[in-house]
Please model this.
Amino acid sequence: MRRLALAIGLCLCVLACRTKVPPPPVAAKNIFILYPDANGHIGGINVANKAGSVDLASAYLAVQIDRDDTAPGAPVVLSKDDADSTFGAVINALPDPEKSLLIYFQPSKDEIAADSRATLEAAPAEIQARHSTDVSVVGHADSTGDPKANYELALRRANKVASELTALGVPAQILSIESRGDADPLVKTPRGVPEARNRRVEILVR
Amino acid sequence: MLKRRACATRYLPKVLGILFALTFANVCLLAEEFAGTCKRVHGQVSILRGNQTVAAADGVRLLIKDVIQTGADGSAGVILHDGTLVSLGPASAVAVEDFVFDPANGKFNLFLKIFRGVVAYASGKIEQLSPTSVRVETPVAVIGLRGTRFAVSLDPKTSTAAK
Model:
């Protein structure tokens, strides 16, 4: 009986001790790792200090660097699970990417195309859902007419969309209004060619 | 009383002028300094701005030179004005040392400093339009980028103080 009590006591003690052991430090080493982009595309990074340099250009390739004066170690490919055990939480904590809404316009005018009304009217909900305090309203023109006039036209278009948004309840101070004139077409055309897809205002919600 | 009122009237235009100048300067300054906004703020997260500490919350704006830092239970995200994404795990700190996003004039610059903790990054338009304009520093190495998503965890022993 005494032995049983002792055994139970020992078990409890071990359990208690176990729960008291502090978790290992989150980052005991300096690790750099390449992740695939949200769309699966794999880019690349270069990691360099005064002792050396290494390129990471495949998914979950990681390198350890001890100090700023010690060369990077040999890169190691981690399994997705191993990578996620250290980095999954912070990768998941990345905010949603900016959302782009396109509003199209009548040729040479700041009049919103009828079929873009629905997109415009849905914009305030999108802004609110993201609790956004940073919205760009960027006006564009196609390449008919001269660039200076197109800059002004694209600015009028952006102002038009901005005033519609404020009328729909979006606070004016979160909007930044810009014009790119005809310098940033969605569809490249020869000079002077009308192109409906370039007569647009892009609303960027961040 | 009459004298005082006359005095006030005399100085009013000057005072208004100064007020206007200050407000205008302030607005310009803010527009110049704005870099991005905080998102997905959880637990203890603060912003160091000069000698001040500002509480971080979703939608709070970040200015150039701000340091965003998380406590042991904290995590936070940042979306910069060009769409660059940054996230911080617990006990982490990142400074937006410089930020210029001016596509109309072809001017770009992004300089981030990661001081400590666990941090992830996903590229935005500055990196797309001008990859050489992006610089990310850590205490042990500098990171060059080619349109990508990466993460870093830092050893507390080689981490540096945020300021």
Summary: Chain B has a mean pLDDT of 86.
